[in-house]
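User: Reviewer 2 asked us to show a designed sequence for the structure in our supplementary figure. I'm pasting the structure tokens here. Could you produce the per-position amino acids so we can include them in the response letter?
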């Protein structure tokens, strides 16, 4: 077949082009194609006879069954033919798919890594906090927990915490009822906040603040419970310290009141003492009158003077022993001994006094306080005990000063006895100086009051 020069150029371009060039009719049947197409798809010209279609959605089926992806530029020619210039983009498409798959994998991997990092950060935060966190479902089964929860379970509950365990199984029976009550409130949608304690060796306690709150879904349905437990022992100790400081301040106030009472007693005693002076002055007048000459009633005046003097003496004794505060320079033996002597001299009670104190000074206020306690208890014995003997013992060591008063009176039941003014005053005096006391008695077996003050 002879070709014109221009046709020859086109034929050479058609045959030698690296692109796949195909001519097909409007139904897609191949009419002609260049060598590049035959070489790429593996067909011969005879095999690609007219009417055979090798295209499927811009993918060509090779002779060996493999698929070649193409990118085509189509142009309609005369005689109802279409010229297609196609480029083999199989490798390009494969690379694009690999890139897309790699991007998807990377995106998924990134999401997984981000999720892992978030979870890791959350666990890092939870595991490094001092608060115990436990996540439960509504059936109180353990779902998750932090490291502090493991430590708490081991130290306080004696269990190794494991997911899927029932939370209440970790607690003794005496605590389960209260915990169940709180958790039922949380399941009902409430937030619960309370404090509890666990005993430690040596009569100490570890205090915890417990907070439980519900976990809701989007429909506001409770899915589970978060339990947060925080050690508040130091806070409790601080509160106790503050309370103790307040108690000590109150004791100081009580001591100040007692001291003021002592001053008031001294003042009253001094005023009464002035009254005694008036009695003595009256007695002196009678005696002076009895010395006058020509007095017919001298004997009566002398007797009246004697009566006044006796009254003054009795008044002075009462004032000295009950109202006027003893002098601070006297020691405890010198303060208490006159009380003992008076009992032995004027009462039917036989009194024994043992004094076992080293020659070490005692604070004046404490000394007077001990004196008043002994004085008050002796008064109680005289009024109520019906005792025939009393034993007073004052003793001390390097840490404490002790006072014991024992009688053999009729005694009483300490559990049923109403505290009167006398015993209340004694207790107030003891507490104001941080003292301790015990009162032991029973019917028919007398009474023993033991007091101990820190030095």
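Assistant: Here is a per-position design you can include in the supplement:
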């Amino acid at each position: 077949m002879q070709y014109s020069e221009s046709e020859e150029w086109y034929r050479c371009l058609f045959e030698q082009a690296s692109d796949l060039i195909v001519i097909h009719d409007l139904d897609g049947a191949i009419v002609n194609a260049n060598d590049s197409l035959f070489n790429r798809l593996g067909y011969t010209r005879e095999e690609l006879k007219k009417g055979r279609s090798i295209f499927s959605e811009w993918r060509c089926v090779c002779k060996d069954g493999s698929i070649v992806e193409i990118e085509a530029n189509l142009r309609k020619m005369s005689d109802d033919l279409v010229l297609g210039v196609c480029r083999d983009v199989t490798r390009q498409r494969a690379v694009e798919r690999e890139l897309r798959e790699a991007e998807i994998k990377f995106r998924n991997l990134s999401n997984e890594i981000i999720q892992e990092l978030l979870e890791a950060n959350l666990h890092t935060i939870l595991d490094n906090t001092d608060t115990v966190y436990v996540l439960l479902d509504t059936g109180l089964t353990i779902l998750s927990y932090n490291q502090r929860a493991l430590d708490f379970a081991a130290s306080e509950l004696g269990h190794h915490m494991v997911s899927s365990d029932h939370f209440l199984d970790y607690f003794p029976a005496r605590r389960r009822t209260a915990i169940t009550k709180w958790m039922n409130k949380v399941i009902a949608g409430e937030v619960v906040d309370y404090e509890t304690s666990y005993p430690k060796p040596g009569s100490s306690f570890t205090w915890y603040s417990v907070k439980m709150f519900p976990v809701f879904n989007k429909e506001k349905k409770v899915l589970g419970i978060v339990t947060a437990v925080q050690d508040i022992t130091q806070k409790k100790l601080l509160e106790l310290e503050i309370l103790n400081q307040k108690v000590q301040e109150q004791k100081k106030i009580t001591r100040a009141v007692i001291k003021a009472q002592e001053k008031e007693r001294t003042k009253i005693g001094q005023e009464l003492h002035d009254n005694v002076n008036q009695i003595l002055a009256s007695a002196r007048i009678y005696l002076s009158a009895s010395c006058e000459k020509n007095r017919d009633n001298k004997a009566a005046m002398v007797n009246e003077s004697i009566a006044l003097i006796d009254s003054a003496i009795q008044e002075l004794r009462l004032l000295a022993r009950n109202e006027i505060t003893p002098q601070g320079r006297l020691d405890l033996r010198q303060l208490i001994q006159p009380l003992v002597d008076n009992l032995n001299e004027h009462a039917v009670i036989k009194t024994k006094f043992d004094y076992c104190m080293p020659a070490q000074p005692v604070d004046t206020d404490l000394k007077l306080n001990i004196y008043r306690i002994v004085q008050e208890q002796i008064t109680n014995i005289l009024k109520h005990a019906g005792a025939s003997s009393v034993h007073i013992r004052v003793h001390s060591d390097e840490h404490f000063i002790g006072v014991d008063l024992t009688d053999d009176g009729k005694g009483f039941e300490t559990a049923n006895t109403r505290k009167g003014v006398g015993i209340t005053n004694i207790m107030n005096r003891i507490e104001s100086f941080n003292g301790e006391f015990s009162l032991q008695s029973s019917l028919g077996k007398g009474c023993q009051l033991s007091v101990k003050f820190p030095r």
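For the response letter, you might also mention the following. The chain has a mean pLDDT of 78. The chain is about 45% helix and 25% strand.
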